[in-house]
Amino acid sequence: MAMSSQVCALFEEAPERSAGVRASSLYSSLIDDLSQLNFADADDRRAFPPTLHSMLARHGLFGLTIPADRGGLALSLQKAIELISATASFDVSAASTLVIHNFLALPCIEAAPHLPNQEQVIRGATRGDLCAFALTEPGAGSAPRHIEASAFMHEDKVRICGRKIWIGLADWARWIVCFARASGHDAKGRLVGVLVDRQAPGLKVTHEHRTLGLRGIIQNTLEFQDVEVPRAYVLSRDQDGWGAAASSMNRGRIGVAAMGLGALERAIQVAASYANHRRLGKLRMIENSYIEQLFGQMVLRREVVKAMLTASCRLVSGQGSPNVHLASATKVLSSEWCGLVADQCVQLLGGRGYDEGTPLAKIYRDARILRIFEGPTETLLSHLGRCLLSRATRDEIADLFVSLGAASVHADAVEELRGLDETDGAVLIYAGWLTTLGLAQAVMTAGTFTASDCATAAADLVSTELAAMRSRAPTRLSVERRTRASQTLANFLQDAACSIRSPVLTDDYLKLVQYV
Asked: Among residues 361, 348, 353, which one has the least CA distance to residue 295?
């Protein structure tokens, strides 16, 4: 290497080492502070520990990847998700706050340089002015095509009308990034993102959702009743708000995957500690061969998820955005396996696992939402399957496999699906799983995304999962079989209406008025 190159390398490595030291120190101090908080009581009260917000702000965690000159920590995506994962190991609600603020809402604000007082807004956000992300609606979920909230465009103002549900941080937020359908004489009818002050006249926080898990973070319904904001607060000036939303949600999937990793790791820790002390006859529980194998599989799943997250952080676009297909696959695998491991750990502890006095019951409840947040598993699998099969997008998937050195894995998947109905929902889900597990297999065999000595065993686990899935490959269903399945459900509903006289089956209950 030439002397000039060596000098350049030294200057490039020094800041990187310095950043690594800072991140390591931050990680240690964060763990120390989180360990002092009582998240179990917070879960019962459905409110965070009073000092949590100030503690997260003191550590700078409300500006994880924001540049230092704007008040942020300027961390790499890898270091940011490590902090999120660590936080999730204590409380998934707290980690969810960091994901919503840092990965969903703030990037939309940061990408709008025309925004009045953008610097002040971002600096305030890094110091603790929470930002919420309002996309979900009663009749649409997060599907952009069905969003009905409207943003009527005047010359200098925007008037927003509509309702949003399940909005995390809504009642605590200083700013809300709201997505609505543009209307007006110069509107293109596209989705737009608008930054709204929480105190804006006409914006009302109404129903508080009492969710199965994530009890520490507040989630509300938002009512926009002729809320007017300056037109300069439209974040997407070209009226392509969905592009901004999709980019944030893609990064959000990485955050959700990191949350799943943290919760999965904590579940294994708790269960292993119990099994190490609990005796079954003459042996400790952890010495039972079946339980040994079960823990071994849990640890291997953790290794795969960790490697997938590392790969997602490294394979980014020129704009720093994670690869959308790899991010989706990582989120699917992390959330599904986190739920599986949490369930297995509860089972291992028996009645103690079901007792709210142990952390596992809370982890079990919190983990359930991860399979829904930022795209339900089935939606993401269908998308991945469609991308694998569609001529318009198959090259994107192919290029991703090539970049991981696994072109043959992609070719085998395409060949296997040849001849199946590309419009069949079961085929799309199956193709999505082929893509997800195929990418996991590619990441584990690449050898560049994990330093673990059990990487080979983890790759074998993925291969086993693929083989098991292929044994259930979809086949063409005859019209008769599909009709029979439909008739079976119809017969059950008719029978239940007569034999199960529970209020749960009354029309009023099933209407779920506040959602439908």
From this structure: 348
CATH number, residue 379: 1.20.140.10
CB 106 within 8 A of CB 125: yes
Q: Which of 102, 148, 107, 152 is nearest to 126 (CA)?
A: 102
Instruction: Give the residue numbers spanning the domain of 221.
Output: 131-244
Strand residues in 136-282 grouped as ranges (E): 150-153, 157-168, 175-183, 191-197, 203-208, 219-230, 279-280
- Tell me the pLDDT tens digit for each residue of 164-175: 999 999 999 999
Cα 96 to Cα 217: distance, rounded to the nearest angstrom: 8
- Please name the residues in contact with 391: beta carbons below 8 A apart, sequence gap of 6 or more: none
Model pLDDT for residues 318-351, shown as the tens digit of each residue = 667 899 999 999 999 999 999 999 999 999 999 9
Please answer whether residues 331 and 257 qualify as being in contact, where contact means their C-beta atoms are separated by less than 8 angstroms.
yes
Cα(426)–Cα(389) distance, rounded to whole angstroms? 13
> At CA 189, angle to CA 184 and CA 193, rounded to 5?
95
Find the radius of gyration of the CA atoms of the chain: 24
Q: Residue 6: its pLDDT value, please?
A: 33
Residue with tokens 């969710």: 211
Report the Cα–Cα distance between both ends of the chain, in Å, rounded: 66
What gap in Å lies between CA 11 and CA 29, rounded to an integer?
28
Do 221 and 284 sit in the same domain of this protein? no
Helix boundaries (H) for 350-477:
351-354, 359-368, 377-389, 394-403, 407-417, 425-446, 455-470
Asked, for residue 322, whether it belongs to a domain, the answer is yes
Q: Which of 315, 332, 424 is nearest to 379 (CA)?
A: 332
Report the domain count for the chain. 3
For tokens 């006249």, name the residue. 201
Tell me which of 92, 127, 162 is where a domain ends. 127
Q: Which of 89, 37, 85 is nearest to 61 (CA)?
A: 85
Check residue 71 and give left, alpha or beta (phi > 0: left; psi -120 to 50: alpha): left
